[in-house]
Specification:
Strand content of chain A: 5-15%
Helix content of chain A: 40-55%
Oligomer: homodimer
Structural class of chain A: mainly alpha
Shape of chain A: elongated
Number of strands of chain A: 2
Distance between the termini of chain A: 33 Å
Strand order of the largest sheet of chain A: 1-2
Number of domains of chain A: 1
Order of helices and strands of chain A: HHHHEEH
Radius of gyration of chain A: 17 Å
Largest sheet of chain A: 2 strands, antiparallel
DNA sequence: TAAGTTTATTGCAATATTACGATAAATAAG
DNA sequence: CTTATTTATCGTAATATTGCAATAAACTTA
């Protein structure tokens, strides 16, 4: 118990759930928005921008990186993070298809 | 500790995170897909369709209902669930905007 | 009213997530 | 080499999520 039974679901369903998990915390949403917004990649600036402790931000960055949504590049003592465009596009298509499902018009019990 | 610090984030960031949470479990993704797919609203059929126990499905349905994504309608001893179109559309727009953010082209450190 | 059907709720166990202090690791500057 | 700067990792505490057996609640039918 307490474990998601992934094997009961399709590949697509699990993928949507996994990507959603990445978006399921406002700090990670904020990090992604910052990476989109800044014209230069940010690093520890995220710690200042978002009001959470450095280890917490580092942990969120790790999750986004593990999923493949962002890439990290070491520059001296600091690390520069960017959106991984290819992965973002792939995820976007998967998600857009899910969001744009057609509702059968007969479907009206409530 | 262990509590998401929602107050540090914008309304929009929290909204995206909350909607994402609803999508962050394959069983809920499967439930939503079924509700879209069936031409008649389903109810306990979800328990048969998805291979989880009845209380578990009931709990997932409750979460989706609390968020406003689905509506439930009692019909005799059974309950018929449907997508809440208006809420789905609202969430879709919010999400689509998030997914379609523009990447600044100068943003190339990695 | 009694029995059957369907869904919701309760209670609990297992696991996952979030947060951060302490500290390690890596590099840069002096 | 020493010190400062920046980021990652470890360890741990608090909380949230997932899953289901047991049971309650609501309704139907006999």
């Amino acid at each position: 118990m307490g474990v998601t039974k992934s094997e009961k679901f399709s590949e697509e369903q699990n993928q949507i759930a996994n990507i959603s998990k990445a978006f399921a915390h406002p700090a990670r949403v904020a990090i992604l928005q910052q990476l989109f917004k800044m014209d230069t990649c940010i690093c520890g600036d995220l710690v200042a921008e978002i009001g959470l402790a450095q280890p917490t931000i580092s942990q969120h960055l790790k999750e986004l990186k593990n999923l493949g949504l962002i890439k990290g590049n070491v520059e001296g003592t600091s690390v520069c993070y960017c959106i991984n465009k290819e992965v973002w596009e792939t995820f976007k298509e998967l998600f857009t298809a899910f969001l744009n499902q057609d509702l059968n018009s007969k479907n009206q019990c409530c």
